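# step 3/5: fold
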Amino acid sequence: MFPVVFYWLGKISGALNRCIVSAFLAGLGMCSAQAAESGDVHLVADIFRPLSRPAEMLLEPTQLVLLVTLGIFLVVVGVLVFVLIQFRPRGPEDHLTEPPQIYGSNNIEMAWTVIPCLVVFVLVLVSARSIVEIQDAPVPENAIHIRLVGHQWWWEIHYPELGITTANEIHIPVSTRNGVQTPTHIQLESADVIHSFWVPQMAGKTDLVPNRINKTWMEPFQVGTFLGNCAEYCGTQHANMLLRVIVHEPKEFQKWVESQKRPTAEPEGALAIQGKKDFFDLSCINCHTVDGTLAKGVFGPDLTKFATRQTLGAGVAPRTPADIRAWLANPDSLKPGCYMPDMKLTPQQLDGLVAYLETLK
């Protein structure tokens, strides 16, 4: 009986607080679209402006928790202010008088025990309902499937059904609220320590745990680039384990898929050709893969379509020739503690490698 009552209490509370808290947050400017976007890159990851179905499903319990905790805060502060004013010293004699002492008040003890228990119970039921709704959401036949592996400190991304492997950037199609729905379901794994996948406007946090498979999904309603990051401290460069989710229109997504499947052309020009030779001679192939070549390393990111990505070093720098050169010359200068070694390259080798990497598209 009680679980049913609290279930519907959670439903009613959610319906009521959507209007109340949304107005409150809008008044604070937390839902400002102007603050959330710059062009098509959503620079501010605003959880109060969800643009994907799972993130929207998380907003209701989030608002309820905020509303309840705000009420608790106001009650506690109100009582504190009342006590400070009502019982303040009013003269020298008050410093010599001990106020009445209250011991063993059953009413007070029942109030501060039962009320918090009821509040926690309601929040647990509402949270459990939201978690079950998200985790048990049906997987349609047209869903995109991704296998994502967390490394220190980058993301390995596989599209098993499409035969695509990339790194640090997830490309997915957009859905429509009342039309074609194309969710993306992600299988989360870790190659070393515990990481946490979080793209705030797309979905909630989900951990990547060694020797365990977790799952999450996204169904965005707006195209653009959404920024995410690892939300679990995982070592020296945890703060620079960044991630991008790039949402395309369906036709643009298909173009991206086709471009990723297209064989990489052979480099042209003496500098790029020499750079390819140095890439193999300097043992870069021990850590990296380039399809169609002898490079089959798996310790570092797959570089097959490196020149199509927006950033390098898991988002630590834009993918420009100057930044690529700086990265190759001394990876620690951009990402201290990363596992890519300083190969002590000459200026000529740096020029060649940059030229070769720019042909991988």
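# step 4/5: annotate
The two ends are 61 Å apart (CA to CA).
# step 5/5: archive (pending)
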